[in-house]
Design a protein that fits this description.
By secondary structure, this protein is of the alpha+beta class. The protein contains 19 helices and 10 strands.
């Protein structure tokens, strides 16, 4: 890891104490008016009924850093059944550990009962374990969380922050640190590695040396986790707007190759004059993904579909494996080529990330059609039969964004006209079936008359 990213060694020791650091209102910026009104209501109801309630996790972290939290999660010593009696507008979720969601207009606030440490968490066998679900105390709950900066509690009675794990010090020094012994905690749940580099990328924080070393040493344990967990965590990063920074850390630690295993087998064995090395190509694609994600957030619209982003990220692999952008196939040959891509995705990615069949099919459509869309864009010719295809608009956007990554010339700043994107955890996309607006004449984002600019044979 780049030494510039590493915090000083004096922040390295990690110890737990039953006596927490209590941060008074004079020493932190959080005030009641900064907290969501419904979250404050929940905290007051808990307090008025004799239960302890604390704002926890990312909400405390973001407020301390002067950011607007996306969610306001609450922990309490009340049990799920007791919470349900206090809030009629609630429901119980979760299988391993029961959580309560309190439903408000347009949002949900999640309540969790304070958890205890697993009896195996500190001294047990070196294996991946399912979470322990017994209830515990405030300090046990703090030590059970993944990162120190997400292990802070804010209570409204005295307007104080309670810190058992050194999270305030890490926030002050912009450090990402796994709670406790990082090697042992990663062994218990390898997904913690993804969460560590996610927050480092999003917050532009440094990763503590011991945490970074543990990630680099144990990255191959990530596939021990259920594929659906890995997929969902990865999809969050694709939509984060900080994917380029995430990719840099994931490549450096080699976690990236444990998520997209097909890149392990097919890398650029030799560089061609008009081709960038695979890492530079991936970085260029990641910057385009971030631009579109930030554009979607600014306009409060949904971003690119999951299958679109996954296929987009596989272009360097397809170029290396199949010489994708130089393919010039038609008819039966084009169909056979798409089937080859489909077989490769089914074998090397579908099972690894537990992708739905429909998702893989959408990815094949985007990748296999990229060469002919590049060719027609270069020639500035768009046959009528192509415009009538259900996937025309989506493949056109796919082509435009790929060229943006190659040339650096921005595409139009409007968002793609696709059907409503499914939730990030639902990988089944139907955007390619959108036939709306087909009669409107398509105008490429940019064209050129210069021959061979994209390395295509005339």
């Amino acid at each position: 890891m780049d030494s510039a990213r590493q915090p000083p060694d004096r922040y390295l020791p990690m110890t737990f104490s039953k006596e927490p650091l209590i941060v008074s209102p004079d020493d932190h910026p959080i005030r009641h008016h900064m907290i969501d009104r419904d979250a404050m209501h929940v905290l007051r109801v808990l307090r008025d009924n004799g239960y302890a309630g604390y704002l926890v996790g990312g909400g405390v972290r973001d407020l301390y850093l002067g950011k607007t939290p996306k969610d306001f999660d609450i922990s309490t010593d009340a049990r799920p059944g007791q919470i349900r009696k206090l809030f009629r507008n609630s429901r119980t979720i979760g299988r391993r550990f029961r959580l309560v969601q309190i439903l408000f207009r347009g949002k949900e606030i999640e309540l969790s009962t304070l958890r205890s440490l697993s009896e195996y968490d500190l001294d047990g066998p070196e294996t991946v374990l399912a979470p322990n679900n017994t209830y515990g105390s405030l300090d046990e709950d703090a030590q059970r969380r993944d990162l120190t900066i997400n292990s802070l509690f804010y209570e409204i009675e005295n307007n104080t922050i309670i810190d058992y794990v050194g999270g305030i010090d890490d926030l002050d020094h912009s450090v990402i640190r796994i709670v406790g012994d990082p090697e042992r905690r990663i062994t218990r749940d390898p997904v913690r590695m993804l969460r560590a580099i996610r927050h480092a990328a999003r917050l532009n924080f440094k990763i503590a040396p011991r945490t970074w070393q543990a990630i680099c040493s144990h990255h191959e344990k990530l596939p021990l986790c259920p594929p659906s967990r890995i997929r969902d965590e990865f999809i969050k990063d694709l939509h984060s707007g900080a994917f380029a920074a995430w990719l840099d850390l994931a490549l450096e630690s080699e976690l990236f190759f444990d998520i997209l295993g097909l890149y392990k087998k097919t890398l650029f064995k030799k560089e061609q004059a008009e081709e960038l090395p695979y890492r530079e190509q991936l970085t260029a694609l990641a910057k385009v993904i971030d631009r579109r994600a930030l554009l979607a957030k600014e306009s409060e619209q949904q971003g690119l579909p999951n299958d679109f982003l996954l296929a987009f990220l596989l272009i360097p692999w397809a170029n290396a494996r199949f010489d994708l952008v130089r393919q010039n196939l038609k008819g039966a040959a084009a169909f056979r080529f798409s089937k080859i891509i489909r077989d490769q995705l089914d074998t090397e990615l579908g099972t690894q990330l537990n992708l739905r069949r429909s998702t893989r099919q959408e990815m094949v459509i985007l990748l296999s059609n990229l060469p002919q869309f590049l060719r027609h864009l270069e020639n500035d010719t768009w046959p009528k039969w192509m415009k009538k295809k259900s996937y025309f608009k989506t493949c056109s956007l796919f082509c435009d964004l790929y060229l943006e990554s190659v040339t650096g010339i921005l595409t139009d700043t409007h968002l793609p006209s696709v059907q409503k994107q499914p939730p990030q955890t639902d990988m089944d996309s139907s955007h390619s079936r959108n036939r709306g607006g087909q009669k409107k004449r398509y105008r490429p984002a940019f064209t050129t008359k210069k021959k061979g600019i994209f390395g295509l044979k005339k």
